[in-house]
Design goal:
about 120 residues; alpha+beta; eight-stranded mixed beta sheet; 2 helices; about 25% helix
Length: about 120
């Protein structure tokens, strides 16, 4: 099975690196799926969950907030302002952040908390 090399990097660290068969992410133009051999892409990442499907059938799920996605020559780079693997997300803390954001009517903080909760809920999938 064909694979692409993926690098998920946040502003403060390398989050994940490895081979995948498909990556799904949210861009400014909508959701995009990148598979080996895809045409080159450069786009703005929107806040949303990123799903990385590995060749062994496993999946890596991350909550990503802003940044860029670049694909060429079967190499995909996700350069995020903030990125957390689903396994790293403290669900109770994310729920408290969501409640606080709704109370303070902070739409950006609310979106970040929602994305974290979606990613955390997908980690078992």
């Amino acid at each position: 099975m064909a694979e692409l090399h993926v690098e998920l990097v946040a502003a403060d660290r390398k989050v994940w690196s490895g081979a995948a068969t498909i990556v799904v992410a949210r861009t400014a133009s909508g959701d995009i799926g990148i598979q080996p051999g895809h045409t080159p892409v450069l786009s703005v990442l929107e806040s949303g969950p990123v799903t990385i499907r590995q060749a062994d059938g496993g999946a890596v799920i991350a909550a990503v907030h802003g940044g860029f996605i670049s694909f060429a020559d079967n190499k995909l780079s996700l350069l995020a302002e903030i990125a957390e693997l689903a396994d790293e997300i403290d669900v109770a803390r994310a729920e408290r952040a969501l409640d606080r954001a709704r109370t303070e009517t902070d739409a950006h903080a609310e979106r970040r908390a929602e994305v974290r909760l979606v990613a955390a809920s997908r980690k078992a999938a």
